[in-house]
């Protein structure tokens, strides 16, 4: 079954347990090494950062994408452990600690960070501030303008007659 | 992809979807400054819920949804959301030990 490549599971590369994407080392076969290079260009690896550097990088991503481009932010629950580690922990009777994995990309590079139960409130506040500061291109509701335009239309339409009262 | 029109429906269904499968559900936000568009997507790789908008007031609602998801994902899917949504205050006021009426 052919799986279309997406930025989270690159062909020829594999995802390490800490979500780092690795590519096979170029071996003597030229074809494979060329393929390796092209894959690297198409799917740059993901950088796992600490909370504050992540927020700084996210800010710069938003600033760079003002003229054109998009910024994607993905939130997912993850324990950041491989299946093997999970099995070991559950068989040992220990509870698996889950964290919130946050990824951000602007199609050129991807950054990520993980937030635990203790720091999610602080992160949430800083994240909200960044979004508020940068999502400025959205339209604001122009209720006042709408009212003015509808009133103007009514005045033009019904000059002599009074407005009929609707039950 | 069909977009959900009602914000409240989007929120309710997304939280339901997450609680049903917290391992594979993810919440994606895409923002395009040049087009002034915001698209939200919640999927568990089987079902996909999407919401798009160009209104600034929806961005404010999205911030609340962000908080909801941060709480759900960091603390666990069984967390009581009334703290986050602010509908019912969970904080119990400290009971004052009264000695009775002041005489």
Description:
Chain A: Residues 158-167 have a biased composition (Polar residues). The complex is a heterodimer of chains A (167) and B (103). In chain A, a hairpin with a 5-residue loop joins strand 1 and strand 2. Chain A has a four-stranded mixed sheet with strand order 3-6-5-4, covered by helices on one side. Chain A has a two-stranded antiparallel sheet with strand order 1-2. The longest helix of chain A has 15 residues, at 120-134. Chain A is built from five helices and six strands; from the N terminus they run E-E-H-E-H-E-H-E-E-H-H. Chain A is α+β, with helices and mostly antiparallel strands and 167 residues long. Chain B has helices at residues 7-20, 56-75, 82-85; strands at residues 26-32, 37-43, 48-53. Chain B is 37% helix and 19% strand. In chain B, helix 1 packs parallel to helix 2. Chain B has a three-stranded antiparallel sheet with strand order 1-2-3, covered by helices on one side. In chain B, a hairpin with a 4-residue loop joins strand 1 and strand 2 (37-43). Chain B has one domain: 2-Layer Sandwich (Signal recognition particle alu RNA binding heterodimer, srp9/1), CATH 3.30.720.10. At the A-B interface, strand 4 and helix 4 of A face strand 1 and helix 2 of B. Strand 4 (70-78) of chain A pairs antiparallel with strand 1 of chain B.
Helix content of chain B: 25-40%
Number of helices of chain B: 3
Tell me the fraction of residues in β-strands of chain A, as a range: 15-25%
User: How does the major sheet of chain A shape up?
Assistant: 4 strands, mixed
Question: How is the largest sheet of chain B built, in terms of strand order?
Answer: 1-2-3
Name of the CATH superfamily of chain B: Signal recognition particle alu RNA binding heterodimer, srp9/1
Largest sheet of chain B: 3 strands, antiparallel
- The average pLDDT score of chain A comes to 77
Pfam families (chain B): SRP9-21 (PF05486)
GO molecular function, one term (chain B): 7S RNA binding
Keywords (chain B): Cytoplasm, Ribonucleoprotein, RNA-binding, Signal recognition particle
Organism (chain B): Brassica campestris (Field mustard)
């Amino acid at each position: 079954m052919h799986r279309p490549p997406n930025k989270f599971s690159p062909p020829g590369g594999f995802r390490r347990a800490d979500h780092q994407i690795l590519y096979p080392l170029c071996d003597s076969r030229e074809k494979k090494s060329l393929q390796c290079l092209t894959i690297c260009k198409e799917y740059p690896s993901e950088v796992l950062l600490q909370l504050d550097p992540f927020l700084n990088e996210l800010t710069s991503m938003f600033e760079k994408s003002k003229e054109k481009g998009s910024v994607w932010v993905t939130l997912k629950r993850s324990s950041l452990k491989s299946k093997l580690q999970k099995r070991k922990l559950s068989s040992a009777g220990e509870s698996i600690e889950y964290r919130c994995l946050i990824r951000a990309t602007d199609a050129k590079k991807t950054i990520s960070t993980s937030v635990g139960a203790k720091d999610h409130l602080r992160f949430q506040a800083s994240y909200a501030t960044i979004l508020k500061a940068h999502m400025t291109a959205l339209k604001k509701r122009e209720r006042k303008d709408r009212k003015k335009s509808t009133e103007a239309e009514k005045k033009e339409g019904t000059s002599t007659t009074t407005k009929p009262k609707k039950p | 992809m069909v977009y959900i029109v009602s914000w409240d429906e989007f929120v309710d269904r997304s939280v339901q979807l997450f609680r049903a499968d917290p391992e594979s559900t993810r919440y994606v936000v895409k923002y395009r400054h040049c087009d002034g568009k915001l698209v939200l997507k919640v999927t568990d790789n089987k079902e996909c819920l999407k919401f798009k908008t160009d209104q600034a007031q929806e961005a404010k609602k999205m911030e609340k949804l962000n908080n909801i998801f941060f709480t759900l994902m960091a603390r666990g899917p069984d967390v009581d959301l009334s703290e986050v949504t602010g509908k019912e205050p969970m904080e119990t006021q400290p009971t004052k030990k009264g000695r009775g009426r002041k005489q």
